[in-house]
Amino acid sequence: MEKKTKNIVKIIAIVAIGAVMVSGFLTNWFGLYAPDEPDTIVFESSEALGDLSSTMVNEYKKIAPDADIIQSNTTSAVSDVVDGSSTIALTTTPLSSGQKDADCNEFIICNTTGDTPVYIVWKGYPEFELYGFIQFMMTKTGREYMEGAGDYMTYAQFSKGALRGVYVRGSTTVFPIVSAAAELYEMFNPEVSIAVSATGSTDGKTAMNGTSANGYMPEVDFGMASSSVDTETYPNVINETVARDAICVVTSSGLAADLDLTIEQITKIFNGTITTWDQVDTGLPSDAINVYCRESGSGTRDTFEKFTGVGDEWDYADGATALASNGAVYDAVSSDPNAIGYIGIGYVDSGVKATDVEGVTPTTVTALNGEYPMSRDIYLLFRPDIANPPDISEDGLDASAQDFVDFIIDTDLGDWIIEYTGYIPPA
Q1: Cβ contacts of residue 221 below 8 Å, gap of 6+?
Q2: Is the pLDDT higher at 193 or at 44?
Q3: In this predicted structure, what is the pLDDT of residue 287?
Q4: Which one is predicted more confidently, 128 or 300?
Q5: Domain annotation covers residue 9
């Protein structure tokens, strides 16, 4: 897919809203990298909504005192957003189809007591400061302020009733990217509900390919995999690179050495030829090495075996523990002082130590340029053979799923999500 040229700021952080924010990865953005000179938000509303808009501005500025918001009342609030003279509008008039085609967005933020929906309207993906203000109005705290502003009540849309669904399954390596993107995408597209399941690469491929029992129809909108598709096994599926990853060999953070391992050493540890830590480094004790690997069907395991030959040319060490996900391997290694395992770079943090391999430290830079010897592409999976325009795209996706995929792959914000979750956007 060709990268879209939308003017999108990489939204990193806004304000320290903390506990009042929606839970999940979004909470980590706030209070980190606010710009030195915030952009001005021009916030317009009708006269009837003037008290509500003033309340929201005043309450938001209590937690974001540097926010530069100009609030006014006008009869042209929505058209001003459309032509770019205003940043955001509060209105009881829904967007027309033409205004939506002009890249304008609306979200029902509350109802009047007369049961009239109140919309916030903005254009395109919001930039840094505007995102924080919109996010605040979507929180439970923001909605409570609306109820206190007068004749308004929380809108039932927040219960997420009948929504269009997008279902994704597959790799635990790709899961952090897609689940983080889903959380943000749903915020700006409340009519879409996205379910993302970390079930392993093999399941992602099988779910996309289908089986004879279901006439080889896909079971999901798209899949995730951390290894490429074998076209003989999955003839209906294509893979598209979503990011670059590095498979990291990890030990407990308490291991009394920073290791630099060769591929040969890694192979011998995981096939059971090297069994104690002093065989790896004479400065380490003679304690037995506890080996953790991924279970069969994992794309991470498949790629690790291609790099080392373990599992192909040699069996895993006796007593090696096979686990179902990157997260499970991380948990095991971080809690076992004699452990060694392998995980995707997006899972590495201070709870474990990533070893150097052949003298190269695994980083986003060394993974992207190929210097790190255990780097790889990771993928989204599609079924172009079921394409049926205009309802189904060339990748076999309906409109909701295609727009979500475009959000991940074809926007600067999607690139930022990939970087935020510890991976590298494809070159």
Answers
A1: 166, 167, 168, 397, 398, 400, 401
A2: 44
A3: 97
A4: 300
A5: no
Give Cβ neighbours of residue 380 (< 8 Å, ≥ 6 apart): 174, 178, 222, 223, 224, 239, 240, 242, 405, 408, 409
Angle at 352 between CA 350 and CA 354, to 5 degrees: 105
Stated length of the chain: 427
Same domain, 313 and 368: yes
- Total number of domains in the chain: 3
Mean pLDDT within 296-318: 83
Give me the mean pLDDT over the 203-209 stretch. 92
Residue 168: which of 201, 191, 125, 211 has the closest Cα? 201
**Identity of the residue numbered 141:** T
> Residue 141: what pLDDT?
63
Sign of the Cα pseudo-torsion (302, 308, 310, 314, in order):
positive
Domain boundary among 135, 159, 183: 159
Which residues are within 8 A (CB) of 243 and not within 5 positions of it... i.e. 6 or more apart? 174, 177, 377, 378, 418, 423, 424, 425, 426
Is 90 exceeded by the pLDDT of residue 332?
yes
